[in-house]
Amino acid sequence: MTGPNQEQWASCAYDVRAQLGEGPVWIAEEKALYFVDIVNKRVHRFEPGTGKATHFDAPDKVAFLLPLEDGTFLAGVKDGLYRFDSSDGSFRKEVDVEPDLPGNRLNDGCVDIYGRGWFGTMDDSEEAASGSLYSVRHEASGFVLRKHDTGYTVANGPAVSPDGRTLYACDTPSGNIYRFDIAADGNLVNKRVFVHLPEDKGYPDGVVTDCEGNVWSSTWGGGHVRCFTPEGVERFAVRVPATNVTKVAFGGPDRKTAYVTSARQNLSAGTLAGEPHAGSVFTFRSDKAGLPQHRIRLSA
């Protein structure tokens, strides 16, 4: 980290220039970063140590990858949750999500310490407040969804505290990051505003938590990753050389190497000329370790 009066900058790690890069996930066993390009319907895999990069075509817009304990992923595709296997690039639908809302798509997710997945949905045109927050568990009958909150235009985040008792989620256009308590029965209760980002700082996009419970929010239109204490006080911000910053994943052997996805979407030709690596994966060193990557538990 730099000194208190110096702004830290992220550097380009993988010059992929995705249209809408999102959902980075660090798989420690593979020493690899997985992430998606939602608009181009692709899953990317990148090994920072070797520079090796591969990609897989998804059946539709793909917004996130939630690791499963068998080594595959639960992928959030536009119309539902799919099992994605990186060994052969296959996608198999497991469950429909919001079949009554064809204008919606899935958007961003995470896995908590209990092996439960969380994700949001959004209006694909970013106009109607038709998005919701869900959890997903695997039971003997298969993957089971539970709706927890609704009324989001662009549901983002979500992230869960290290102890599994608090969930953070954004409604990006509102500028609000919300905080919920997770009750013993898995319900979300006591919704309140955790942080409101003023428009000049950009809009909260993906959020993640670290091992000490700090909340790291990427900023769409803000060009930064901002780190907040569990009390909602901003600790510092890291500058990213891209206007649209979407999400952080912590990787490397000590989980202190941050990888940051970004997007070229909605940027003018003039802006892109000044941000040639927009849409790429950036990196910086963190003073705090990220959480281990949890996996969705699979019932027998």
Automatic annotation (TrEMBL):
Asked if the keyword Glycosyltransferase belongs to this entry, the reply reads no
Instruction: Please tell me whether the keyword Repeat is annotated for this protein.
Output: no
Query: What does the Swiss-Prot or TrEMBL cofactor note state?
Result: Binds 1 divalent metal cation per subunit.
Catalytic-site annotation from UniProt: D205 (proton donor/acceptor)
Keywords in alphabetical order, please: Metal-binding, Zinc
Q: Per UniProt, where does substrate bind? A: R105, N107
The SMP-30/Gluconolactonase/LRE-like region domain, residue ranges:
20-264
Question: What are this entry's molecular-function GO terms?
Answer: calcium ion binding; gluconolactonase activity
- Similarity comment text for this entry: Belongs to the SMP-30/CGR1 family.
| Official protein name in the record | Gluconolaconase
